[in-house]
C-alpha cells in the first residue's frame, strides 16, 4: 500500500506529468538538435521542418532516448508489481462486498484486461506520434494535444486546451490520493491510540498530522526520500503478509456470502477497482525509463506479465477478504483487524508510517505540474519562497478535503470513477482514433474506430455514473 506507482515511481514522474518544459531531441537531416516542444507551437510547423528528413519510419524513438538511469525489464516488472500494493488492494474486500463474490471475480478480470488494453493502445499511439514528430519521448498531455491537432475537425479545435485537461484530471487524481492517505493514516492511528489514551476525534488526529505533512512536502529533492521509500516498501510487504494471516483464520464457507451485489452499488465497486488497478501516469513513466522499451508491450511483455499478476493478487485479496468479513468489510481491510491485539495494532502503525512517507511522493506530482507548467515562468522574484507556498497550499487543500469528507472508501471510489475513467479508458481511445485519422487503416469494417468509440462511451458512462453514486453516498453518509 505504501507505494503505488502512484507511489513508488513518483521518484521520476515528471516526464509523464509536467511535460511542457521538456526538451526533446529532434533529428533533422541526420543531425541532432534541441527543439522545445510546448503548448505554443503548431505541429504543422514541426512537420514541415522535418519533412526533408525522409520517411518517419526511418526514425525509431526508442533508439534516441537518453535516460540517465534506465531500468531493465526485470526492474520495471518489480516496480510495476511493487506499485500495485497500495491503498487499492486493501480496499478490494469492500469492493467485492459492493459487487458480490462471483461478479467481483469476473468483473475484476474484465476491468484488468480493459485497463491493460487501453494502456497498450496509449503506449502504441505515443510511439507513432514520437515517430511522426521525430522525438524520443512525449508526455501524456502533449500526446493528447498533438493527436487532437491531426484528428477529426470537430475535435482538433480543442487541441490547445487538451494538455490542461489531462493535467487537470491528473492533479485532481493525485490530490485525491493524498486525501485518501490522510484519512487512512489518521484512522489507523486513532484505532491504536484509542486503546491506550482518551479517544480523540478523527479530525484531531488529522490536525496533529498537518504540520508533519507540510514539512515532509517541503522536501524538494526526492532522492532524500528514496531510503525512506525503500523502508516503506519493506513495511508494506511485511504488513500485507501479517494481514493475510488474520484473513485466513477461521474462514467462513463461501456459501455464506452473496454471489451477486446490487446494481446500485456496482458503480462503487467499479470506481474502487479502477483506483486500485489503474496507474496510467506511472505506466508511462515506467515505459519511458526502460532500457529496452520495445519489450514493454507484446503478449509476453512486461505490461502483460505485471498486470496479470496484479489482477490475480487483487482478486485473491477481494475474494478471501469478503469471505472473511462479509458486509463488515471496511474501506481498508486493516480497519477490520482486532483493535486490542498487539500484532494487529503493529500492522496499523506500520501501514500508517508507510503511507505517511508516501504522501510526499504523491503530493510531489501535483506540485510539479502546477509549479513547473503553470507558475514558474510567471513568477520572476523569490521563486523558492513561492514554490514553498505552492507546496503548502497543496497540502492544505488535501487536508481540508480530508477533514470535510473523512470517508475513505467513498473517496477511493469517487476519484477512481472521476479521473481514471477518463485518463485510463476514454483518453487513450480518443488518442488512438486521432493518431490513425484519416489515412491509416481502421481495419475491416472500421473495427478499430467502432471499438474506440465504444471505449470512449464506456469510460464516460463510468465517469458520470460512478461519480454520481459516490457523491450521493458521501452526502448520505453525513445524514
From TrEMBL:
It comes from the Eukaryota. Residues 30-40 have a biased composition (Polar residues). It is found in: Membrane. One of its GO terms (molecular function) is L-amino acid transmembrane transporter activity. The lineage of its organism: Eukaryota, Metazoa, Ecdysozoa, Arthropoda, Hexapoda. Keywords: Membrane, Transmembrane, Transmembrane helix. Residues 1-71 are annotated as: Disordered. It is a multi-pass membrane protein. Residues 17-28 have a biased composition (Basic and acidic residues). This is Amino acid transporter transmembrane domain-containing protein. The chain crosses the membrane at residues 101-123, 171-190, 202-219, 231-248, 268-286, 298-323, 343-365, 385-405, 411-437, 449-471. It holds the Pfam family Aa_trans. GO terms for cellular component: vacuolar membrane. Residues 71-471 form the Amino acid transporter transmembrane domain.
Amino acid at each position: 500500500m505504501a507505494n503505488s506507482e502512484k507511489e513508488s515511481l513518483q521518484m521520476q514522474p515528471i516526464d509523464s506529468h509536467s511535460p511542457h518544459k521538456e526538451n526533446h531531441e529532434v533529428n533533422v537531416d541526420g543531425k541532432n538538435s534541441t527543439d522545445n516542444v510546448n503548448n505554443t507551437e503548431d505541429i504543422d510547423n514541426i512537420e514541415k521542418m522535418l519533412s526533408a528528413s525522409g520517411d518517419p519510419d526511418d526514425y525509431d524513438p526508442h533508439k534516441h532516448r537518453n535516460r540517465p538511469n534506465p531500468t531493465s525489464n526485470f526492474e520495471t516488472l518489480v516496480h510495476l508489481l511493487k506499485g500495485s500494493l497500495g491503498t487499492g488492494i486493501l480496499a478490494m474486500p469492500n469492493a467485492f462486498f459492493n459487487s458480490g463474490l462471483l461478479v467481483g471475480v469476473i468483473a475484476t478480470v474484465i476491468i484488468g484486461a480493459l485497463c491493460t488494453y487501453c494502456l497498450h493502445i496509449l503506449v502504441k499511439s505515443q510511439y507513432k506520434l514520437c515517430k511522426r514528430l521525430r522525438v524520443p519521448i512525449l508526455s501524456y498531455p502533449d500526446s493528447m494535444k498533438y493527436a487532437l491537432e491531426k484528428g477529426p475537425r470537430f475535435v482538433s479545435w480543442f487541441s490547445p486546451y487538451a494538455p490542461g485537461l489531462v493535467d487537470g484530471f491528473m492533479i485532481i487524481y493525485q490530490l485525491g490520493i493524498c486525501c485518501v492517505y490522510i484519512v487512512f493514516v489518521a484512522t489507523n492511528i486513532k484505532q491504536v491510540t484509542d486503546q491506550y489514551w482518551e479517544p480523540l476525534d478523527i479530525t484531531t488526529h488529522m490536525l496533529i498530522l498537518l504540520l508533519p505533512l507540510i514539512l515532509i512536502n517541503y522536501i524538494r529533492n526526492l532522492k532524500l526520500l528514496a531510503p525512506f521509500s525503500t523502508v516503506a516498501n519493506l513495511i508494506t510487504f511485511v504488513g500485507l503478509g501479517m494481514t493475510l494471516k488474520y484473513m485466513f483464520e477461521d474462514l467462513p464457507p463461501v456459501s455464506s456470502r452473496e454471489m451477486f451485489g446490487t446494481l446500485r452499488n456496482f458503480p462503487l465497486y467499479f470506481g474502487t477497482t479502477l483506483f486500485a488497478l489503474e496507474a496510467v501516469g506511472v505506466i508511462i513513466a515506467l515505459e519511458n525509463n526502460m532500457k529496452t522499451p520495445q519489450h514493454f508491450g507484446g503478449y509476453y511483455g512486461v505490461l502483460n506479465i505485471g498486470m496479470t499478476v496484479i489482477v490475480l493478487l487483487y482478486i485473491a485479496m477481494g475474494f478471501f477478504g469478503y469471505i472473511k468479513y462479509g458486509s463488515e468489510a471496511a474501506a481498508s481491510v486493516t480497519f477490520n483487524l482486532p483493535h486490542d491485539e498487539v500484532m494487529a495494532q503493529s500492522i496499523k502503525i506500520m501501514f500508517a508510517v508507510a503511507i505517511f512517507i508516501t504522501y510526499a511522493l504523491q503530493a510531489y506530482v501535483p506540485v510539479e505540474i502546477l509549479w513547473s507548467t503553470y507558475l514558474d515562468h510567471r513568477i520572476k522574484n523569490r521563486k523558492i519562497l513561492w514554490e514553498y507556498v505552492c507546496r503548502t497550499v497543496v497540502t492544505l487543500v488535501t487536508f481540508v478535503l480530508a477533514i470535510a469528507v473523512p470517508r475513505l472508501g467513498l473517496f477511493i471510489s469517487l476519484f477512481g470513477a472521476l479521473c481514471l475513467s477518463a485518463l485510463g479508458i476514454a483518453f487513450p481511445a480518443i488518442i488512438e482514433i486521432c493518431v490513425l485519422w484519416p489515412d491509416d487503416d481502421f481495419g475491416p469494417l472500421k473495427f478499430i474506430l467502432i471499438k474506440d468509440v465504444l471505449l470512449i462511451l464506456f469510460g464516460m458512462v463510468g465517469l458520470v455514473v460512478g461519480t454520481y453514486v459516490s457523491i450521493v453516498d458521501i452526502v448520505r453518509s453525513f445524514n
